[in-house]
């Protein structure tokens, strides 16, 4: 087996050059490194500052690629691995310990230690158990929930060692691990590394301090990018260290998608980041909030208006027209409508139904209940004209009208007022003025949404009977209501009636009112208002989206080193992408929810103020989806930026 014969790490002629392109002079930092390290060795790489130690460590840990030379890991050429495979190798083989600890400031000690296991797809409860056990073993059992800022330097370094061990840490790469520590903490850390080496971990310690280096089994000296001394090469550790942990097997390389546990983790840490920046986040979200709220209100108003228009259309009919007497524009006496006019209009081919109307408030009485109400006298066509069914009984007939029959049909509210206690008002006598009328029917309720609920308060009597019994003083119809034969003929009917009456009266002493057109016009006004609100919503969402992008770009900048740490511990590019996209989406989910809430409150306020409006669940879902979509759209660029960061550069950033 190749893995058994080949050294764990084998570098041949490794060179690393910086610069060269873009004006910067080219510098060669590593100048042909040949180096073999076996499993279980405890190696110190020592050299003065600037000699290329960190550069070498980044190459060893697969955070960086060499400019020339080959790197075989357990016999496999690392140059052939893609970014995801390198992430796997970092995750499974290496554990990094840095001089500056590089802990994630917003997460607790335990959560910091859990990070590598997150990317390895370990289930949450195992992750937690293992992190706790490692921290306890390193003497931090009491500090599990402390943030890095609440720990001393030595404690932070122990947390980072626990993190390096989380996925096994077969190879510990420690770059100046004691550099920032006082001597006693430094000694503790060194003791820990010795222990780990004895337990079979391969430890590669980088230091500028010869005394520290002397604690390793093998000391390699580096100067100006070349190895100038090696105390123990070649060293067969497997003979002296039977506990040596083997290299991870490339055959076991698998795709850890992370699944739901990872998604939950993304949201949890995103939530924390959002809370830490709550003021900034809240300001950013204003656009989203306003956008979502206005989408909801806008659609509710649109829907309410549409509903009302439709109800009005249904109740008045989309073909209804009115004819009034009027004063001519050129002055002179008011016009009068005659029954002769009515008959002539009814004969027009464009006109379908017609009724003359006389209506006035009169005293109406039944028993002790008396009230002044509108008494509407029309012919038998009224229910047809208004598409208005009866709730009980029947409407009067043309015959009854001709015979001056004293019969009355009640509106819904009139029935309730006069016959509250009666199961059946039919056959009862209602006194209108001084004349008794027999109740023969009750109209169906028009209701508030019809926009014509005033009809519910009225009573209806035949036109001729009304003329004969209560409206003796009124000789001619006050106005007429008629319908066009089809909706397409409404305008033609209006024109025909106008022409006819001009011919009959010789002057324009009347007015034709097109109710359908009015309703249409009102609907159009509302429509344009809805469109304006829609524009506001769109602009707000856009502004909100740009805000989200801005805040996310800021976050990525602020947390560049965290991204480097996550990559060093085995995060793939798509893990980073997912994390920042998750943050953007979470932020917009919160903004979207606030928007829905404010939309509901505003809408309820408008509703109470009498604006017809209907909330719809689908509108809310749509608005919400828009917000989240905005987050995805505008969060993508920053997340992509984060994912594309070079791990070495990210780690080096401050
Ligand atoms: P050490 O860790 O031994 O102190 P480094 O490996 O960090 O040394 O750096 C070695 C040399 O490489 C230094 O002279 C440094 O300036 C240079 N160097 C490191 N990183 C870069 C980089 N990204 N671009 C240019 N020069 C670099
Ligand atoms: Mg260094």
Sum up the structure in keywords.
654 residues, binds magnesium ion, 22 helices, single chain, 48% helix, Rossmann fold, alpha/beta, six-stranded mixed β-sheet, binds adenosine-5'-diphosphate, 20% strand, six-stranded mixed barrel, rod-shaped
Question: How would you describe this protein?
Answer:
The protein is of the alpha/beta class. The protein has three domains: about 10-245, Rossmann fold (3-Layer(aba) Sandwich), CATH 3.40.50.300; about 270-300 and about 530-650, no CATH class; about 320-515, no CATH class. The strands form three sheets. Strands 6-7-8-3-9-10 form a six-stranded mixed beta sheet, sandwiched between helices. The chain starts with a helix and ends with a helix. The structure holds adenosine-5'-diphosphate and magnesium ion (MG).
Helix content: 40-55%
- The CATH topology of the largest domain is Rossmann fold
Q: Provide the low-confidence segments as ranges.
A: none
CATH top level of the largest domain is Alpha Beta
Summarize the structure.
With 654 residues, the protein is an alpha/beta fold. The protein is built from 22 helices and 20 strands.
